[in-house]
Amino acid sequence: MTDKKIVFSGVQPSGDPQLGNYLGAFKGWVQRQTEKTNYFCVVDLHALTVTPDPEDLRTQTRELAAILFASGIDPYQSTLFVQSHVTAHAESCWLLNCVTPIGWLERMTQFKDKSQGQERVSTGLLDYPVLMAGDIILYDANEVPVGEDQKQHVELARDIAARFNRIYGDLFVIPEPVIPETGGRVMGLNDPTIKMSKSYSHIRGHAIRMLDEPDEIQRSFMRAVTDSGNEIRFSDDVEKSGVNNLLGIYKVITGKSESEVEKDFEDARGYGDLKKAVAEVVIDELSPIKEKYQELMSDVVELDRLLKVGAEQAESVALPKLSQMKEKMGLILS
Ligand code: TYM
């Protein structure tokens, strides 16, 4: 019997993974994987909510899995799998739909943002956080390490789990969101007032994509929006959000404290030096990941085998939990 905490987290195979995904999520998953029992999931069913091109979705699912392994997810320490390979996820979503008031979903900020101005909004987009709740609770996850933008969804998962427990009797662990102190909200380089996002990664200078070439990374950082001053320090002032973002990226990658980071730039001759230094640490961090990624993508048969092993491990946990759910709800088990 182990008393390791259980961790579940996921990422959508939609768009190119970017530095915010890496610093807000993947890096922390890798760093803490030996202390925990981990389930990491490429959530292809979630990606369907924006009707991707089918061939693109298949390609991006494998690419994202390869990026996660390349970032350091160790298949012997952690279970990494594709969501649709474990059918309990879609099934648990239906069961949880039946205990989730629709108003809870309508008030989700991400739903409001994504549905705004759309002529047609799919039921899947509204239901998205219920599928996410199923992901988490099937594994009795105690901790859900995510960036700040997913906090509201994890809180909803807590509410759904608690409501199920109240109606049908205790079954689910109530999960906690775990958000990194720095890196939980990496901002766009072209506009440091909005979150860096895969959805805008086609806009020049907005995001650093994890597979960008070093010279592209360098160029994006050199173009990053800052302010008209020259003070290199952490700050909550909106005006200094560009500099604050660059310092935050540098801090998470180097693992230094705020004062150590500020000391590194004491003798800097302006923001150009800061941008150059941040670009350098990011390039050094991402280069070996890219190399490993290319190696993994050159053997798709092996990659698929690793994902199959992951799905089998995940299913061995998720299926018994799903059966318990069904039993509590009054379904006859076949
Ligand atoms: P997704 O695919 O949008 O993002 C994956 C992870 O990256 C984090 N992230 C960021 N962190 C810091 N700064 C940013 N600019 C930034 N952009 C993205 C996200 O917060 C997330 O942790 N719904 C989820 C996927 C999901 C999931 C789950 C997560 C499905 N089921 C169960 C946890 C548990 C999503 O769309 O993440």
Description:
- The structure is a single chain.
- The protein is mainly α.
- The protein is built from 13 helices and 5 strands.
- It has helices spanning 19-31, 44-47, 54-71, 88-97, 102-106, 109-115, 123-137, 151-168, 214-222, 241-254, 258-264, 271-297, 300-329; strands at residues 6-11, 37-42, 78-82, 143-145, 176-178.
- A 3-stranded parallel β-sheet has the order 1-2-3. A two-stranded parallel ribbon has the order 4-5.
- Helix 8 links the parallel strand 4 and strand 5 (176-178).
- The radius of gyration is 21 Å and the shape is globular.
- 40% of the residues are buried.
- The mean pLDDT is 96.
- The protein binds tryptophanyl-5'AMP.
- Tryptophanyl-5'AMP binds at residues 8-12, 20-21, 24-25, 43, 46, 132, 135-136, 144, 146-147, 149-150, 153, 184-186, 195-197.
